[in-house]
Amino acid sequence: MDWLRKLLRPDSGPARTGPLDVRHSRHVAALHHQGGFARGWEPGECAALLADPAVVADGVFGGGSPHPAGFVISRLAADEAEILSIVVTRARRGDGLGRSLLASHLGQLAGRGVAHVYLEVEENNAAADRLYRRFGFREVGRRKGYYPKPDGGRAGAVTMRLDLA
Ligand SMILES: CC(C)(COP(=O)(O)OP(=O)(O)OC[C@H]1O[C@@H](n2cnc3c(N)ncnc32)[C@H](O)[C@@H]1OP(=O)(O)O)[C@@H](O)C(=O)NCCC(=O)NCCS
Q1: What is the pTM for the complete model shown?
Q2: In this predicted structure, what is the pLDDT of residue 6?
Q3: Is 115 helix (H, G, I), strand (E, B) or coil?
Q4: Candidates 3.30.1360.120, 3.40.630.30, 3.40.630.10, 3.20.20.120; CATH matching 2-163
Q5: pLDDT at 10 over 50
Q6: What distance lies between CA 99 and its chain's CA centroid?
Q7: Which residue among 6, 11, 88, 146 has the greatest number of ligand 1 atoms within 8 angstroms of its CB, and so is best to mutate?
């Protein structure tokens, strides 16, 4: 009865996407901490990112909530963008929010003249890999032992690229 539980959750319902700004810093930091990354972003760091004119940040909002249930942040340089992070709140993963978020974000990037989008994703991150490949991202390189892990080990990174133009 997973579908019924999802339907009855207060934050369920159609998701909308929209731009994020410094007012969302605390929520972005909280979401980032749910991402499972070795180093979480602090609210001050998120505020600096969200205030940076070279940064494009979008959120996905479930139901009528004013707080984002997920975010994606990219930094622009000339006609390229790098996706710095994308996270959907744990309770809403697998509901298609990541797809909505990335679709809207890539549209924003294309509208700003971005021709090439890059990102790095940890090897064996099946959900992220599937999400990126669905939008046409292709692997262009690998970095061995790139990510520090909470257990002290290291994991490799896959570099992916998508051409928008
Ligand atoms: C990666 C992430 C943003 C995806 O968001 P999401 O809302 O769960 O994704 P969606 O529900 O839109 O699903 C996207 C695709 O991934 C697939 N997917 C979702 N969870 C999956 C899982 N655990 N394993 C394999 N595939 C999965 C879906 O089936 C879907 O594929 P499809 O479109 O071909 O059917 C989310 O899992 C997350 O926040 N993870 C933690 C942070 C992270 O790893 N970010 C990426 C860092 S580079």
Answers
A1: 0.92
A2: 46
A3: coil
A4: 3.40.630.30
A5: no
A6: 10
A7: 88
